[in-house]
Amino acid sequence: MGKAKRVGGKRVASKSSRSSSATAAAPAPPPPSDPETALPLATTLVERGELAEALQLAQHVLSSHPTHLTTLELAGTLLLDLGKPAEAKSVFDRYVAVDQNNASVLLYLAQLSAAKDAVAWYQRAGQVLEAKLAAAGGDVAELKEKISEALCGIAEIYLTDLCFEPEAAETCLTVLHRAIQVDPSNPDPYLTLASVQISNSQPLDAKSTLQSSLAQWLQPFMAYLSMLSDPEKMMELERTNAVPDPPRLPTFDARLNAVRLCLELGLYGRALDVLGVCMQEFDESVEAWYLFGWTYFLVGNASAEAKPTTEVAGIEVAVELPEDEVMDARSSRDEWWSDAIECLQRAKALYERQNYDDVPLLQHVEELLAEMAAKGVFASADGAGEDDDDDAEDDDGEWEDMEL
User: Fold this and answer.
1) DSSP 36-93
2) Where is the composition biased (Basic residues) (predicted)?
């Protein structure tokens, strides 16, 4: 490395030192601003999980290409993924100022809007998708699913933000029936329709609708699980390369909503079936354990009656208990309640550990536990359900041994 020389009383760096310093101080090249170069780089960043860096690059492109649609859509979705919905909506607003024919962007805007604005975006998305469906050939399942999603979105708005509008009830029923017509295999509109029918004091119709929803996915999925547990059948399917894909399932939250509807309509056996599917996906869900406990509590009550019923919207509806094999595993109400307590205490432990925030759920857990304790029923003697720190940390212990 060259040394500094003294020239005229001043220390001056040698040529080699000056060259080395210049090299070290050279600034990094600026990020590309043309979309054709930048977007593949942004995609790579997303694949590596570097969402903030991908967003920075997209915003850099937009500084010189403010109406580039692909970059606007990418920036909007990244902002959503980064938990910035207001900024995402602003970007999607810029998108639709240029083009209103991208159904995905329109659906994002609908979800980020409220009341009649949301309905308008859902309607526009539906129009775009219906036009594509009319022109499409071949596999149109995804288009039908998105149309059904847009129609369900309209129904949800009229059930919440616009519930007092005079057209709310009729609009809900119209769009939900259309959603089922477009995509009969989608369980979601059936669930929403069942909720509407309960609100309209039509529990028997709601029960039929809910059973139609469950028939779309629960029975096929349980048959799929049965197939997986048959080694001979699986060997034959693998030998012929004929192992089927798993049936399409509703989202985890939609399945929990289905459980709540089952409990409201007296379908206790189906509630346990759906919860069993949920637990296979995620067994640390506060709400799933709470719903298990509540279901066991209700089954315990009903097991003591010859012909159990439940009241829905002022109408008595027959309760459907679990299959005999499940019922025979517990001989009395108190056995069901003992297991209910274990599940509810598990829900409490997870609630505290996860800093869960659902005060009404926690209050209902406490009410159920208090009611059973007041009648002298507690968790089973092995202590698996005790609500203490040891049980809260025991992920591999007695909870997994419970017969659900």
Assistant:
1) HHHHHHHHHHHHTT-HHHHHHHHHHHHHH-TT-HHHHHHHHHHHHHTT-HHHHHHHHH
2) 1-13
